[in-house]
Amino acid sequence: MPHTAANSRNVPLTAESVPQIDISGFIDAAGVTAGLAAIAAEDSAGGSSDEARAKVLSYLREVIREARSRVEEAFREDRAGFDCARRLATIQDVVIGRIHDFALRHVFHSSNLSSGERMAVVAVGGYGRGTLAPGSDIDLLFLLPYKQTALGEQVVEYLLYLLWDLGFKVGHASRSIDECVKLSRADMTIRTSILERWLIVGDKTLFDELGQRFEKEVVEGTSEEFIAAKLAERSARHAKLGNTRYLVEPNVKEGKGGLRDLNTLFWIAKYHYRVTTPEALAELGVISKRELKLFQKAEDFLWAVRCHLHFATGKAEERLSFDLQPEIAERLGYNAHPGLKDVERFMKHYFLIAKDVGDLTRILCAALEEQHAKAAPGIGGIRNLVRSLRGRAKKIPGTIDFHIDNNRINVSSPTVFRDDPVNLIRVFRLAASNKLEYHPDTLKLIRRSLRLINAELRDDPDANSLFLDVLTDRTNPEFHLRRMNEAGVLGRFIPDFGKIVAMMQFNMYHHYTVDEHLLRTIGFVSQIERGELTADHPMSSELIGTVKDRRALYVALLLHDIAKGRPEDHSTAGAKIARKLCPRLGLDERETELVAWLVEDHLVMSMTAQQRDISDRKTILDFAERVRTLERLNLLMILTVCDIRAVGPGVWNGWKGQLLRTLYLETEPTLTGGFTRSTRAERLAASRRRLADRLAEWGEAEREAYLDLHYPNYFLTTPLDEQVRHAAFVREGGAGEPLATRVRTDAFQGITEIMVLAPDHPRLLSMLAGACAGAGANIVGAQVFTMSDGRALDVLMLNREFVQDADELRRGERICGYIGALLQGKDTRRRLISGQKAKRPPTAFSIRPRVSIDNALSNQFTVVEVEGLDRPGLLSDLTRAMADLNLDIRSAHISTYGEKVVDVFYVTDLLGTKITSESRTGRIASWLTHVFENPGSEPQTAGILSGERAYGLGRT
C-alpha cells in the first residue's frame, strides 16, 4: 500500500484515515504487477527458477531506474524536497510490495496463509516516516504473530536478497509483537524506530495490534523518559559534529539544525502529545500557524538539499562540502547578487533554516515545560509541591515587567513588549546583570514581538544604552548577545548586523558564519578580560587591564566584519558603518573615530606580523606610522588575537602569538619615544637567558656556542618551546653529517612538521619545496633561519594526509629521503615530480593570481608578494622560478588561508641589491603569474629568461 499524504509527516494509526499519494506519473504499480506476472507465466517453474529470478531482477532494476529518473526530473522542475522524498518512499513501497506478493504467489506458491504464517512488512525509522532520500537506507521490520515459520524465512530471504542485488542498503529485523514491545521498553533506539512505522504490505491486523500495544504498554506514562533520552542523544550528536549550526561545511542530516533535529522535534511532540501531524500541534496551540509554516518550510528545504546531494553524488552524501555547494546552489536556482556569490546566498538560506529549527525546538520545549509545571504538584505529591514552591517567581529589583523563574528571566505579562518596546533590549540587560538564563516563554514572546523593533526603538537613547551595557557586560556578554541574535533582536536592532546573520564566506579558511565569528570574538575578549586565557595570551591578558577605551574595543570587535558580503572592501565599508552607528550607541566623537580606525585597520597587525619581515626596521616604522599611539597599539593587539582565535579550531598557534608579541614590542618604543617596558637588547638578552635555562643540562661551552649560532631575530620571533626543540635537533644533527632532518606530527592542527638542517645556499628553499612536491605534500607554512656558521635551519609545515601518526611519520620520512637525494645530487626535482600524480586544486574555488613587487617596504630588499589559489607544489614552483630569475631569497613568509596562499619573499639580485629596473620587475611578475596557472612549466617556454641573460648573471 503506498504512503499517504499525512503519513509523509508521520504515521497515523489507521491507513485509511488519509488519501493516498498520486504516483501515476512516476511508477505504474499495476504495470509492475503485470510485468512480474508475465515473467512468472513464461517460466516453466511458475516463477521459482533461477532464470525467472534473474529476469525479475533485471526488470525491477529498469523500473526503479526509470521511476527515479522521473522523480529527479520532476524535482529539478518543482524543487519540492519534501515531495521528492515522499515520491521516492512511495516507489520503494511499490517495489517491496510487488516483490513480496511475487514471492508468495509465484516463487513459493503460498497465497493462502495459515494464522501462524501471517506476516506484516513494516517500514520503520526514516522510511517509516514516509520519506526517503535517493541514497537512504531501507529499514524494515518483518512483524510476526508468534515465531518465524519456514515459509516466512523463505519470503524474507527472497525479498532481502533481491533488494540487496538491486543495490539497496537494507536494515532489517524479524520480531513478534511481544518481542517488539519488550525490546522497545529496554532500547530507546528500537522504541524510536517503531514509533515511526508504516505498513508496506502484509497483514494489517498484526500491524494494528502492534500499534495498540505499543501505545498502551510502551508509550503511555513514559514521556519524560523518552524526552530526556532524545534530548541527551541530540546533545551528544551535536558535540560530536562541532556543537554549532554555523559550520561552513554542515552535515545536512546529523548536524545541528539539520534534518535529524527536526525529526527529534517531532518524535518528542508525537510521543508526548499523541499527535500524528504537525498540523495537530498547531490545533492544540503548542505551536502557532506561523511556526507550523516554519516547520514545513524547514522540512521541505532540508529535504531538497539532501536529495540534491544524493542525486549529485550518486551516494548517501550528507556533508555539504565546498566542492558540492556551488552545484547544489545552481540546482536550487540561486543567483549571485552584488557582493554575494550564488553559493553564499544559498548557504545563508541554509543557516537561517538551521536557526529556525533551533527556534522551533525551544518553542516546543517551552510548551512541554509549561505543561509539566502545571501537572507537577498533582502528579508527584508533596515532593513536587515543595519543588514547585522553591522555584516560584522571584522579583527582579527595579522592574515589575520581569521576574526570576527557576534562575531564568521570564515575563510578568504577555504585553510587556507591546506596552514598552524598550523592554525588548532591557530583558537582555536584566538577564546579564543578574546572571540569568532565559525562560523559553520569554524567548517565544520576543520572537513574536520582533515587529516592534522599528526606527523609533533603534534611535531610543535608553535602548541603545542598555544594548551597550549588554555588549560590554563583564561576566558573559557572548552568551547574552548569542541569545539576542538567536531571538532575532540583534539583527533588527542593528540592521547592518542583520545582513551578515547566517552569512558564510565561501572559503576554506573561515570555519563559521560571519555573525558566529563576531560573537566568538566577543567571547574571547571577555575570557581574556576575566583572566581565563593568561597562559595562551599573556601579553593580551596584561594589556587589557591597561586599556582606557574598553567600550570602543568591544564595539570594534562586534563591527570589524559587519560589512562582509558587499562589493566594497569590508574594512573600508565597516568603518563607514561604525561612524554612523557609534554615535547612536552613545559613543563620543573620539571613541567613534577610534572604533572606525580599528575596524578599517583590523587586519593590519596580523598581516604585518605574518607576511612581513619584522626584523626589518622599515617594517616597524611603517607599522608604527599606521598605528600612531600606544593605546591604539594595545587595542589592535587584543583585537587581532581575538579575531584570529575566532576564525576556527587550530588556526591560532604559538608561532603566530610570538610574531604578534615581537611586532608589538618592536613597535612600542617607536610610539613612546624610546620609553618601553624593555629595550630590544633587554628582550634579546632575556630570550637568550630563558633558552639557556632550558638547556641547563648542556655543558656551558656547548650552550654558549649554540646560542651564538642564531641571529637576534630568531630569539625574538620564535616561541621558547620551539627553540628548545630546534636546539635538540641541531645538537643531534650537527655531529658529522652536513644534512639532518626530523619529522613531527601535530594532529590537533592537522599538520606535519619537517625540520631541515643543511648548508645554506640560494636554491635551498626551492629544493626543499621540490622534495615536498615530489611526495604530493602541500606546504602551508615555512620558517627559514640562517645561522652564523653558514647553515640554515628550515622548518616546513605540511598539510596532514593520514589519520594515523605512524602513517604520517612514514610519509614524512619519505619526504626527508627526497630532500637528501635532491641536496646530494642523487635525484632531480623534475624526476620526482614526474612520478607524482598531479593533484587538482579544489574545483569549487577560483582565485585570480596577483603578484606585486615593492621597493618601498624595505630599505635593503625588494618585496615580492604573490597571492592565488593554493595547490601542492606551488611553493616549489615559485621558489624555483625565483632562482631561475636570478633572485636571492633572503627571507620568506609563507601563509595559507584555506584555499588561498599569500607568500611574501624579501629578495635581492645575486649582487645583493634591490631589483629596480621596471622591465625586470615586469618579467618577474609575468613569470610568477604564469607559474600559478601552469604547474611545472619552464621559464624558457615563455621567453622570460632571455632578458636575464643581458645582465650577464647566468644561473646559480
UniProtKB/TrEMBL annotation:
GO terms for biological process: regulation of nitrogen utilization. InterPro entries: ACT-like_dom_sf, ACT_dom, HD/PDEase_dom, HD_domain, NT_sf, PII_UdlTrfase/GS_AdlTrfase, Polymerase_NTP_transf_dom, UTase/UR. Residues 753-829, 863-939 form the ACT domain. Its cofactor is Mg(2+). It catalyses: [protein-PII]-uridylyl-L-tyrosine + H2O = [protein-PII]-L-tyrosine + UMP + H(+); [protein-PII]-L-tyrosine + UTP = [protein-PII]-uridylyl-L-tyrosine + diphosphate. Signal peptide: none annotated. Pfam families: ACT, GlnD_UR_UTase, HD, NTP_transf_2. Residues 514-630 form the HD domain. CDD domains: ACT_ACR-UUR-like_2, ACT_UUR-like_1, HDc, NT_GlnE_GlnD_like. Residues 1-397 are annotated as: Uridylyltransferase. Coiled coil: none annotated. The keyword Hydrolase applies. Uridylyltransferase (UTase) activity is inhibited by glutamine, while glutamine activates uridylyl-removing (UR) activity. Its EC number is 2.7.7.59, 3.1.4.-. Keywords: Hydrolase, Magnesium, Multifunctional enzyme, Nucleotidyltransferase, Repeat, Transferase. GO terms for molecular function: [protein-PII] uridylyltransferase activity; phosphoric diester hydrolase activity. PANTHER family: BIFUNCTIONAL URIDYLYLTRANSFERASE/URIDYLYL-REMOVING ENZYME (PTHR47320), BIFUNCTIONAL URIDYLYLTRANSFERASE_URIDYLYL-REMOVING ENZYME (PTHR47320:SF1). Modifies, by uridylylation and deuridylylation, the PII regulatory proteins (GlnB and homologs), in response to the nitrogen status of the cell that GlnD senses through the glutamine level. Under low glutamine levels, catalyzes the conversion of the PII proteins and UTP to PII-UMP and PPi, while under higher glutamine levels, GlnD hydrolyzes PII-UMP to PII and UMP (deuridylylation). Thus, controls uridylylation state and activity of the PII proteins, and plays an important role in the regulation of nitrogen metabolism. NCBIfam families: PRK05092.1 (NF003467), UTase_glnD (TIGR01693). Has four distinct domains: an N-terminal nucleotidyltransferase (NT) domain responsible for UTase activity, a central HD domain that encodes UR activity, and two C-terminal ACT domains that seem to have a role in glutamine sensing. Belongs to the GlnD family. This is Bifunctional uridylyltransferase/uridylyl-removing enzyme.
